[in-house]
Design goal:
The protein is of the alpha/beta class. It is built from 18 helices and 14 strands. The strands form three sheets. It has a seven-stranded mixed β-sheet, with helices on both faces. Strands 1-2-3-12 form a four-stranded mixed β-sheet, covered by helices on one side. Strands 11-14-13 form a three-stranded antiparallel β-sheet. Helix 7 packs parallel to helix 15. The longest helix is centred in the last third of the chain and has 19 residues. The chain is globular, with a radius of gyration of 23 Å. It starts with a helix and ends in an 8-residue tail after the last helix.
Length: 462
């Protein structure tokens, strides 16, 4: 690896992401004598307890676990899951289960962006598949066979993105990890160019591949161009980036990035997980909206957000999809998604290819929430997407607001703290759906306005 490949020189979403983006050296062979040699007591190397002894006494793992969790709580970064039960036909309403009983709540942070998980055409397709195929897939597709519903879904996805082929995985995380990991590991002398704010699944895939890589400034084609120019033109190169970034809601300049990649002979790998179903005349994402799908080598997406079910996928030429199918351990050794899930996803994709009603209504709801936040001086990051990051900037206040919204107002918005976002940028990530009513919006804004005053948080200046 050249020195230029080791100079990251850019900010990252979090310290954990920064650590994950660092270059990995191959593990050195360690002789048994070295393993047996005495050494000083281990210390924590990062986190709230950095520099302190890792263990109270040798082998006291429980003490170590408890202390690390205590550090998360003290910093305000400990995550508590709300026990929610979604009710069919009543999205975005849900029932919260607590030790004291049940509570009706309105969900404002779901990634089921359009409520497709509740759509009758989706649930009907899943019921029919269960009645005809049963519950599970029976194992991996290599051992147990490929279900007919898997083939129908892959054909639908290839058509959605205008590609020759598609390959489905158990999640969007796995599709990124497996695909980037396989490409980086098996293409000789490959270099991967990773956007500074890429998702952890992409970073882990690149890291796992042990390919040379460099990080380019977020959404900056000029920086990408400069860094690609430093690489031997003969080396294979992959440019990996996202369309909609989930925490800030900003959108990549895909055409400009493709210009740079094409000039340097690099293939492009685009993560559209927060865009599929949401943008473009048929819901294929930002690349479709911008008319550049044909210029992107591989498009990756999820079935678990706007399509309302679960699973992940990649699309591209028949050769590249067959290559990943044949060489990726993340595909070969993973149980296939159930036929009913595949059938539900297929129905959802088909519906959103033909209907823009859900997308149009969702855009109107987003605009209404933004306008109400502005009218009350509640700061949120401006962006052109459906994601509204309401900025708190303090982990304990962020969690406090989230707790009070749920306990006292029946509003569920999970706090977004470190390591998902950098410290000091804690936020509430709001995702209005087509099914949130005017009354829902009024209730949300009233509650936020009250809590903003209670916590003495700064107001945005109009």
């Amino acid at each position: 690896m050249t020195d230029s490949l080791r100079q990251d020189g850019s900010s990252h979403r979090s310290d954990d992401v920064a650590d994950a983006h660092q270059a990995d050296a191959p593990p050195a062979t360690c002789p048994a004598a070295h393993l047996a040699a005495p050494r000083s007591a281990p210390e924590d190397t990062h986190g709230e307890n950095a520099g302190k002894p890792a263990f109270h006494k040798p082998g006291d793992f429980e003490w170590f676990f408890r202390r690390k969790l205590s550090g998360l709580r003290e910093a305000g970064n400990y995550r508590v899951f709300a026990e929610l039960e979604r009710k069919k036909g009543n999205f975005p309403k849900a029932v919260r289960h607590t030790s004291d009983g049940q509570q009706d709540v309105t969900v404002w942070c779901s990634n089921d962006y359009l409520g497709m998980g509740q759509m009758a055409c989706v649930t009907d397709a899943m019921h029919h598949a269960i009645e005809t195929c049963g519950a599970g897939a029976g194992g991996t597709r290599n051992i147990s066979g490929t279900n007919h519903q898997h083939i129908l879904l892959e054909r639908e996805l290839a058509d959605l993105h205008g590609k020759e082929s598609a390959l489905i995985f158990s999640s969007g995380y796995v599709s990124n990890w497996a695909s980037l990991g396989t490409l980086g590991a098996t293409i000789p002398d490959c270099v991967i160019a990773s956007d500074a704010l890429n998702h952890a699944s992409m970073i882990e895939g690149i890291r796992h591949s042990r390919a040379d890589k460099f990080i380019w400034k977020h959404n900056d084609p000029e920086d990408l161009d400069r860094k690609l120019a430093e690489i031997d033109p003969a080396r294979p190169k992959i440019v990996a980036f996202e369309s909609v970034y989930s925490m800030d809601g900003d959108i990549a300049p895909i055409a400009e990035i493709c210009d740079v990649a094409e000039a340097h002979g690099a293939m492009t790998y685009l993560d559209e997980v927060h865009a599929v179903g949401m943008y473009g005349p048929r819901g294929a994402g930002i690349a479709e909206r911008d008319g550049v799908m044909d210029r992107v080598t591989m498009i990756e997406g999820t079935l678990g957000k706007a399509f309302g079910v679960m699973g992940g996928y990649v699309t591209g030429t028949a050769a590249v999809c067959d290559y990943i199918r044949s060489f990726s351990s993340g595909f070969i050794f993973t149980t296939a998604i159930p036929p009913a899930v595949a059938a539900g996803a297929t129905a959802s994709i088909r519906h959103l290819k033909a209907s823009s009603t859900e997308r149009d209504r969702q855009k109107e709801r987003v605009a209404k929430v933004r306008a109400a936040l502005d009218a009350n001086g509640i700061p949120h990051q401006p962006n052109p997407s459906h994601i509204i990051p309401v900025m708190v900037g303090d982990p304990k206040k962020c969690k406090f607001i989230s707790d009070v919204l749920l306990d006292q107002f029946g509003i569920y918005i999970q706090p977004i703290n470190y390591p998902t976002v950098p410290k000091g940028t804690e936020r509430l990530r709001i995702t209005p759906s087509p099914l949130h009513t005017d009354d829902d919006i009024d209730h949300l804004i009233s509650a936020l306005n009250e809590l903003w005053s209670h916590c003495a948080l700064s107001r945005a200046v109009a």
